[in-house]
C-alpha cells in the first residue's frame, strides 16, 4: 500500500476521506455539485506524537483504522499512487467515531 511508504512526522495524521453518496435512499442520482463535502475519514497512518518543551513525546489520540470527523476546511492534500489522502494535525481532528 502507498501509505506504508509514507510516515507522518510529529503529531500529523494521514487520513483517507470516505466517498460521497452518489445515490439517495430513493434511488435518485446526485450530480457532483450537489454532493456535500465528506467530513468522515479513516486513519491510515499516524506520526509518533508531538514533542513538548520538556522533550516528552505526547502520543497521538487516534489509531490506524479508526473513523474520525474532520473540519470542513483544512488539511494538506497528499497524492500517493494516484489516490488522494489528507494530512491533519492531531489537534485539528474534531472527534472519532466509537462502535
TrEMBL record:
It comes from the Eukaryota. GO terms for cellular component: mitochondrial matrix. Gene3D superfamilies: GroES chaperonin. Coiled coil: none annotated. It holds the Pfam family Cpn10. Keywords: Chaperone. One of its GO terms (molecular function) is unfolded protein binding. Belongs to the GroES chaperonin family. HAMAP family: CH10. PANTHER family: 10 KDA HEAT SHOCK PROTEIN, 10 KDA HEAT SHOCK PROTEIN, MITOCHONDRIAL. Co-chaperonin implicated in mitochondrial protein import and macromolecular assembly. Together with Hsp60, facilitates the correct folding of imported proteins. May also prevent misfolding and promote the refolding and proper assembly of unfolded polypeptides generated under stress conditions in the mitochondrial matrix. The functional units of these chaperonins consist of heptameric rings of the large subunit Hsp60, which function as a back-to-back double ring. Homoheptamer arranged in a ring structure. 2 heptameric Hsp10 rings interact with a Hsp60 tetradecamer in the structure of a back-to-back double heptameric ring to form the symmetrical football complex. This is 10 kDa heat shock protein, mitochondrial. It comes from Salarias fasciatus (Jewelled blenny). The lineage of its organism: Eukaryota, Metazoa, Chordata, Craniata, Vertebrata. The gene is LOC115402996.
Amino acid at each position: 500500500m502507498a501509505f506504508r511508504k509514507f510516515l507522518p512526522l510529529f503529531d500529523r495524521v494521514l487520513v483517507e476521506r470516505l466517498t460521497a453518496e452518489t445515490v439517495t435512499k430513493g434511488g435518485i442520482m446526485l450530480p457532483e455539485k450537489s454532493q456535500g463535502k465528506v467530513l468522515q475519514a479513516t486513519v491510515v497512518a499516524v506520526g509518533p506524537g508531538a514533542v513538548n518543551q520538556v522533550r516528552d513525546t505526547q502520543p497521538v489520540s487516534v489509531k490506524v483504522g479508526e473513523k474520525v470527523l474532520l473540519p470542513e476546511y483544512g488539511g494538506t492534500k497528499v497524492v500517493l499512487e494516484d489516490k488522494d489522502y489528507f494530512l491533519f494535525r492531531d489537534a485539528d481532528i474534531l472527534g472519532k467515531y466509537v462502535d
